Amino acid sequence: MSYPYELDGKTLWDAGFSSGRLYFSLTQGAAEHIQLPTGLTHVDRLGGCDIELPTFRVFVEGLYHSYSHTNSAVLQGLWRGLLVTSLVLLDMAGSPIALSAEHEEALRSDMASFGCSMGASNWGQYSN
């Protein structure tokens, strides 16, 4: 059983049911915290989510801002998995965001691992 994330009728990430539902739930909590809509809409017929790209991009930018502007190792750790998954999904949608030099190497390393698991066709580009 899967939990697909679709953009304009195209499946970007055919997540496993558990990981897809957990990701969706985590985005909802993060959206409340950073006070931004996610751009993800649960779709009963799909058993997954539709992505509204401009809104999702702003949401991911907000996640990245929160991640990169905290000095707390705990908060950074809590943000990191959600952020990396979101960065890969945004990249799969063809709308990546720029990362600061301070975070780029570490985040791209995680993006390579996540991207491979998420089925990103170009996941290897993250490890260059």
Question: Could you please describe the fold and organization of this structure?
Answer:
With 128 residues, the chain is α+β, with helices and mostly antiparallel strands. It is 56% helix and 16% strand. It contains four helices and four strands. Strands 2-1-4-3 form a four-stranded mixed sheet. The longest helix is centred in the middle third of the chain and has 20 residues, at 73-92. It is globular.
Query: How would you describe the oligomerization state of the chains in this entry?
Result: single chain
Strand order of the largest sheet: 2-1-4-3
Treating each run of at least 4 consecutive H or I residues as one helix, how many helices?
4
Strand content: 15-25%
Order of helices and strands: EEHEEHHH
Low-pLDDT segments: none
Instruction: Please identify the structural class as seen in this structure.
Output: alpha+beta
How many angstroms does the end-to-end distance come to?
Answer: 33 Å
The shape, in one word, is globular
Kindly report the average pLDDT value.
93
Biggest pleated sheet: 4 strands, mixed
Radius of gyration: 14 Å
Could you give the count of β-strands?
Answer: 4
Instruction: Estimate percent helicity.
Output: 55-70%
Primary descriptors:
56% helix; 128 residues; alpha+beta; four-stranded mixed β-sheet
